[in-house]
From TrEMBL:
Its cofactor is Mg(2+). Coiled coil: none annotated. It comes from Panicum virgatum. It is found in: Plastid, Chloroplast thylakoid lumen. Residues 8-145 form the Nucleoside diphosphate kinase-like domain. Its EC number is 2.7.4.6. This is Nucleoside diphosphate kinase.
Length: 155
């Protein structure tokens, strides 16, 4: 019963403007919920272009950087923090490969997207980026710590 006592990791997940506009919020949120991960923060925001540039600063030298930042700031984004054992790596697995042409059926991008510039979702790619992205998008007080009754049946 003590398996869940270990520090549970957190990751930053965002549904991009295309996913929000297509009405895919509940579909995507439910995949993380059903897996057993716990939602600890959520908000709908339209990021400014400057904010998008901060979020994607690692990609600033890529040719698609400007278009990508225009896209992310083009409409509402659903920003979330999900918690659970291995959620950073497994969250990326649920999301699927960056290019939806290469992501497997059963993954979010594999099932719901067709092209890389409209791949509907973002997920942190490692513990460092998860930490940085959570801090960029959320204030500490927006992260909600709570016990869910399901946890003792998941861990
Ligand atoms: P993400 O950060 O959004 O989860 O995506 P990722 O790690 O799987 O992919 P990354 O290489 O970090 O690229 C970030 C986002 O940039 C867009 N992209 N556009 N035009 C292009 O060729 C191109 N390549 C990538 C995608 O929206 C990708 O998710």
């Amino acid at each position: 019963q003590e398996a869940h006592a270990a520090e549970l990791e957190r990751t930053f997940i965002a549904i991009k403007p295309d996913g929000v506009q297509r009405g895919l919020i509940s579909e995507i949120v439910s995949r993380f919920e059903r897996k057993g991960y716990k939602l600890v923060a959520i908000k709908l925001i339209v990021p400014s272009k400057e904010f998008a540039q901060k979020h994607y600063h690692d990609l600033k030298d890529r040719p698609f950087f400007n278009g990508l930042c225009d896209f992310l700031s083009s409409g509402p984004v659903l920003a979330m923090v999900w918690e659970g054992e291995g959620v950073i790596k497994y969250g990326r697995k649920l999301i699927g490969a960056t290019d939806p042409q290469k992501s497997e059926p059963g993954t979010i991008r594999g099932d719901l997207a067709i092209v890389v510039v409209r791949n509907i979702i973002h997920g942190s790619d490692g513990p460092e980026t998860a930490k940085d992205e959570i801090a960029l998008w959320f204030e500490p007080k927006e992260l909600v710590s709570y016990t869910s009754n399901a946890e003792k049946w998941i861990y």
